[in-house]
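Lab notebook, design round three. We kept the backbone fixed and only want residue identities now. Task for the bench partner: fill in a sequence for the structure below.
Input structure tokens:
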């Protein structure tokens, strides 16, 4: 952390990209996917998070997402989400791009606006037949809802084996390439193409914030072994101070 803060003080980075994963929402009470207590310890991704799983048993998949939607509805953004929103507010949206693998919507609820949701958003549903999306979480329930056209709705998230939302990885790549500093917060760095973004760093430096090492650690110049809500506000304060 000290080395990162010193580098920030000297370099005064003003174009920032941030890549977040489930770990940034852990302190809001949302379980991560991998590791002790992670979702994939109790459920198998291929039974719940693939198009094939939905084809086989849409009600089961829908109920699982509804359970997660309810869990998320009872949570709030934490100090890390809030600090990143403040960073964007202070530096301007054109200088701060938040790329997230999370579907929980907490970055937007914290106030971030320039957010690229690589894996979609759990509060939206989308028609399995038309391009229609529906953004009214309270309309959903345990039963599999249907679109006005009669086709079942599915969660508007990216499942394993599916393409990312159109243009998302291109916009994310451009932000990483242009960044002076890339913060990599709370991701295990094993799911692609998100994890591959870190390799695109050009002139800037990457800093990982994660209590545990990951495969991305070796490509990051700095590794801060702390939780997101401990470390992120300090890093943001340093960035804002360095430019004043
Ligand atoms: P993972 O569950 O794979 O990894 C969470 C990471 O957060 C781990 O490296 C933890 O060490 C770290 N972590 C835990 N608590 C933390 C804290 N308080 N502060 C900071 N870091 C903490 O989550 P993702 O990397 O986001 O995809 O997973 C990537 C994708 O795999 C998800 O988007 C999801 C999943 O399958 C889809 O559903 C398509």
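Proposed sequence:
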């Amino acid at each position: 952390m000290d080395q990162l803060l010193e580098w920030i003080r000297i370099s005064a980075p003003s174009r920032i990209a941030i890549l977040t994963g489930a770990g940034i929402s852990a302190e809001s009470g949302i379980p991560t996917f991998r590791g002790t207590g992670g979702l994939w310890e109790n459920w198998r991704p291929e039974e719940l998070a693939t198009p094939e799983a939905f084809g086989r048993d849409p009600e089961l998949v829908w109920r699982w997402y509804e359970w997660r939607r309810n869990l998320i509805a009872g949570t709030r953004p934490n100090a890390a989400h809030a600090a990143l929103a403040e960073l964007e507010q202070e530096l301007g949206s054109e200088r701060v791009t938040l790329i997230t693998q999370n579907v929980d919507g907490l970055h937007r609820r914290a106030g971030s606006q320039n957010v690229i949701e690589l894996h979609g958003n759990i509060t939206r549903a989308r028609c399995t037949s038309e391009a229609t999306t529906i953004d009214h979480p309270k309309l959903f329930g345990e039963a599999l809802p249907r679109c006005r056209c009669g086709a079942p709705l599915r969660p508007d998230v990216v499942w394993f084996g599916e393409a990312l939302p159109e243009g998302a990885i291109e916009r994310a790549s451009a932000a990483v390439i242009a960044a002076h500093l890339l913060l990599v917060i709370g991701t295990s760095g094993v799911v692609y193409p998100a994890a591959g973004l870190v390799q695109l760093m050009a002139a800037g430096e990457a800093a990982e914030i994660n209590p545990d090492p990951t495969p991305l650690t070796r490509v990051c110049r700095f590794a801060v072994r702390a939780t997101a809500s401990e470390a992120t506000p300090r890093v943001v304060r340093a960035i804002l101070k360095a430019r004043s």
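Keep this in mind before ordering anything: The first strand starts at residue 16 and ends at 20.
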